[in-house]
């Protein structure tokens, strides 16, 4: 009986090691290994091309962007300031989506002096650019290139006031779909 009690712990330890080995080989091959480091890409109307060269419609992307903006306005997604990563309230987001301009127009009535007018434009109505933070992975088992969107930043088009020429894009806010990417963004921007 004593001999049996001595061997019982040994048998138990060996069986646990064997179970651990079996679990290791059964574990799925999917992991975070093989994913690229996060990278930024830009999607905007003037540089987006489709299989049909006659199709220049950016509405599919715009619809997606507006759906995200709706979730921010509803408080379901947290928007972050592009520069300092501070959380933005819904009112902050809406205010940042407006542009206030002062223009002078000729008065058609005497004394024909110019009048100052303040024009408030809602820039969120015409989003045609998006900065995307993403990571890619090649899955050898399925022979598929996988892409994970970590976050997006809608951007406003900036035009020359006299010529109307596109000068570039101004970022509005960041919103994240991956908690780790969100925390990394906050740490990096807060440290600056």
Tell me the layout of helices and strands.
Layout: H1 2-26, E1 39-44, H2 59-73, E2 79-80, E3 87-88, H3 90-96, E4 98-106, E5 114-122, E6 129-139, E7 144-159, E8 166-171, E9 174-176, H4 179-191
Antiparallel strand pairs: 1-6, 2-3, 2-9, 4-5, 6-7, 7-8, 7-9
Outline the structure in words.
- By secondary structure, this protein is an alpha+beta fold.
- 31% of the residues lie in helices and 33% in strands.
- It is built from four helices and nine strands.
- The strands form two sheets. Strands 1, 2, 3, 6, 7, 8 and 9 form a seven-stranded antiparallel beta sheet that branches. Strands 4-5 form a two-stranded antiparallel ribbon.
- Residues 1-31 have low confidence and may be disordered.
Q: How many helices in DSSP terms?
A: 4
Number of strands: 9
Principal-axis shape:
globular
Oligomer: single chain
Summed over residues and divided by their number, the pLDDT gives a mean of 80
State the end-to-end CA separation: 70 Å
Order of helices and strands: HEHEEHEEEEEEH
Percentage of residues in strands: 25-35%
Structural class by secondary-structure content: alpha+beta
